[in-house]
Every structure is written in C-alpha cells, then in structure tokens.
C-alpha cells in the first residue's frame, strides 16, 4: 500500500480544538458555579496551560501522521499503518501528558498523586488522543481508497486507448498492404513516368543555361563612386559618396551626414553640387541635397504643402524633408531619370 501527501486539519482548526479541550478539562468535575470560577485568576492560568498542552498533543499527532505518510514501508498494509498510528500517536502523547502534568503540578507545589489528575483530566486527554488518531486513520484510508480508484480508472482508460490504437494500426497496416500491392502492379507505369520526368528535367536545364546567358548580358546595377574631402574630428577625411545621406549648408559650411558624426567643409552648396553625380544627388531645398540611395518612400508622399521625402539615416532612424509644390515636378523628373 502506497500513500501520498494528505491535507489534515489546518493550524486554525488545531488552535480552536485545543482551546475547546482545555476548557472542558478545566471545568471537568468542578462543583463551583461557572460564574464564580471565571472570577479566579487561577482559572485562566489553568486554561492557558491546558490549551498549550492540548495544542502540543494535537500538533504532534498531525506531524506524526504526516511523517508516517512519507515512509512507504510504514504503509505497506492497513495493519502496519494502524499499529504505527496507535503506537506513536497514542502511547507517546499519553506519556507526554503525564510528564507535563507532573511538572506543572510540582512547579506549583502540589502533590501529583493527590491532585486527581489521573482520575479526572487524564481520561479526557486520552480520549482526545484516541479520537484524533482515529480521525487521521479514517482520512488516510479514505485518501488511499480515492487514489486506488483513480489509478484503476487511469489503467482502464489507458487499456481502452491501447485497444483503440491497436485497431487503428491494424486498419493502417491493411491500407498500406493494399497500396504496396498497387505499387507493385504499377511498377512499369512508374518507370515510364520517371523517364518522362528525366526528359522534362533535361529540357529545363537547357532553358536555365539559356536564361543564364541572357542574364549575363544585362547591364549591371548602377554603383556610386567618388569621395569628398571634408573636415572631421581628427582632421581631413575622405567621405565616400555612398556613405552620405544628405548634405546641408549652415553657417558658411557644408555638413555631410552619414551614420557617424557629421563632417564639414567650407564651401558653397552650389559649388559642391557641381562635383556630385546628378543621378544620385538632388537639391531638394536651397540648403539641402539628398542622396537617392537612402530615399525610403520613393517619389515621396503628397501633402497640401508639397511632397514629403524621407531619408534613412542609421538603423531605425529617418529624417523627413518637405519639398515645395513648385519644385515637386523637378524632383519627380529627377527621381524617374534612368541611369546612364
């Protein structure tokens, strides 16, 4: 017999049960009315001690029951579990009850044998211990019955699925055998089709070779060559045309914007424009020249004020320029200009 983790009484339930038992123990065999008893401070001391004592016993029984659950060899059969529960859950708490009561009474200077503890309080405590252990045993056995029922149900479902899978694979095997018989009877047709496929492949290879020759005669994609000598952070640098996103004239200098920091050159934008290839660069404003390579929205987006042309700067970064309507026709003509 195996077992798994059980959820026994909660901590709050243990505290409440211990309090009820403590009150019963203190009021047992009392001839004084309850209204008079609660006026004595000793009543509350006795209730507190009895509550602590009862809680310790209840907590120990819960801990002991969980400890037994974690050891399979103590749950091999119902008999072994029963004797383990009675031996550890009943005998040990009863001995502890005697020892704690003896210490408590001796601490207050009372004679243990003459106190009547063994004839009045102790039987109630033993009854509580037996009831608690029997309750845990019932919970344990019920849990085991539920677990065995679940295992049986899972085994039944698995067996049923295995039978269904066996039937499915049997039908698939029959279908596969039929397909193999059809394929064996049609071997000559398959061979003929393979020959036809080889002929089609040979014709495709001939067409691919011819297409490759035609593609070799196509003009190459236009490339941008040339450099500008401009002032950088460490001196004069050669900035390739292909790296320039756009040029801007500001404060008597022409600034070239690339993916790095801008470079500058003391010159007029008109003079610099004459040195740039017309196909690649266009003066979109009086102070701005853009590079065709980095235009991301083609001929631009038409707005009320004119065209919006967007330039790609670095990764995920763009800059948009607005082209006046009177210059839109010249820009569109330049953008559609073929490369010579």
TrEMBL record:
Regions crossing the membrane: 6-28, 40-62, 82-105, 117-139
Pfam families in the cross-refs: LytTR (PF04397)
Superkingdom assignment: Bacteria
InterPro entries: LytTR_DNA-bd_dom
Annotated organism of origin: Parapedobacter deserti
One of the record's GO molecular function terms: DNA binding
Official protein name in the record: LytTR family transcriptional regulator DNA-binding domain-containing protein
All copies of domain HTH LytTR-type, residue ranges: 234-324
Keywords, in A-Z order: Coiled coil, DNA-binding, Membrane, Transmembrane, Transmembrane helix
Taxonomic lineage from the root: Bacteria, Pseudomonadati, Bacteroidota, Sphingobacteriia, Sphingobacteriales
Coiled-coil residue windows: 187-214
